[in-house]
Description:
about 575 residues, seven-stranded mixed beta sheet, disordered N terminus
Amino acid sequence: MTDPTLGRRRLLKMFGVSATASTAAVLQADPVLAATLGHDEKTGVYAAEYRAPTGLAGSTDAKRTALAWIDTNRAALTGLSDDIWRHAELSLREWKSSLAAAAVLRANGFTIEWGSAGFPTAFVATYGSGGPVIGFNAEYDALPGLSQKKGGVTHDPLVYNYDAYGPTYGPGHGDAHNTLGAGGVGAAVAVARAIREHRLKATVKLFGSAGEEQLVGKAYAVKAGVYDGLDAFLDWHPFNITAPFWNTTSSLISATFTFLGASGHGGTPLGNKSGLDGALLMATMSEYLREKNVAPSGRFHYAVINGGGAPNVTPDMCSIWFFVREGSPARAKVLYDKIVECARAAAQASQTRLVHKFHSGTWNLLASKSGAELLNDNMRQIGAPRFTEVDHTLAKAVQKSLGRPETGMPTDLTPLAPPAATYTGGLSTDTADVSWQAPTAVLLAAAYPPGLPNHNWAVTSTAGTTIGHQAVLSAARYLSAAAIDLIEQPDRLAAMTDEFKARTEGVTWTSMIPDDTQPPLYQPPADFLTRTGQTWPPPGITWPVPPVLATEQLGTTGPAMAPVE
């Protein structure tokens, strides 16, 4: 039999606490991360002994109504997914995609309130009254550079931008948020239909979220109170398997560092001050942190935003954008402070001026074990996504193209399992901030082939095909079925609520975003403002944003030299 204390010792080691320490010492070391990983061992949940409970999912007329609505309206839901895929709009600029999602909700009786937390493409759609308030999530932003033709088995961008010196690809749904948005909308409308036909006392809220790929929208919205009053929140994400989970994720801090200098000719560089030098020095210094200053659970990665237009012009401005990830807000802050020191040193060394902009910060996910178990039982009752031979053929061809085993799409559900006893880092989501406000149940649904990473052209390829369609429909079924159980079975909701209170005891959520931080925004097109009834700028927003200008003096060219005789 596996010794359950081994997992506890690994957890303690990650916290930097000796293996003889008590659980209380772990909680004191980092109560936020301990609320996720430590809680399971504290309550006697070990991977080797865990068996997912059954008999949680009901079989009622209301649930059958919800599932029947999804089957009847599958063309509308997959059509919404395809529309969002075609739009492929970047974070915070999802003008057409948000309108498309809201249109389906409005057509099915939801009221729409636009502009959540000042983000023009964010909205709250509401149906019903009284009873438990169940929240769903819709995201619809694409990623830069991941354009790909639908169903393509080799890298073949749909949008290729020619430039003789630096070609680029257009944006694409390399995280399959087209399916995510449509699946959330489908679940919300299906539950609304069951509420109406069976006169259930409940309220459904669908939160259209802006800029998730930049971990922005929900972080600011939670701080503004947009998610207050929820009894439960049900979410999902496209992935390469289908499974519920209650794992945690990484806390994240997003910031840019702009170095300002003085431009000049690249052929006569003396006295020029290069913003690019500052950014590259910062990147180089940060790399030296990795071995001795970053725990296994830590991550940081970056992109140079504006490195100059031509070699013969010393760029007087260059920005480098960092994501810093760790297992909890406190741990992320420690790593982030080290990155900031690298920026300051790089500015001094390059003789440039540093402008530091904090963009967003999110907590690590606090997922619900009881919610995952309810999802799991419903998923087993409904069954795995049903992929065709055409789907498997496409999946195998994409896997072959990227050098992965040619297994096709998964035909079974992945069993529910407890989180690992240690956290070694990984992905982030701004749903995390929501999860500290209300009990949150999360699942994954296969929208691309196993063995492949998200944020890859292959995801864009399959997310626009019937593989993506199956993810949309399956996620909508699973989420709506679990929501009906939460409405009709008060014990199921009470279990999530009680667990949430136990996990969060002694932890007070506070936003990682400093007060008076202006969120990153883009001005909407005039017709978007008209159609959504919004005005610009939103309350409390300074617009236009004051420009960042390089006003530095040129540097010294050295002492005057006497002529050589």
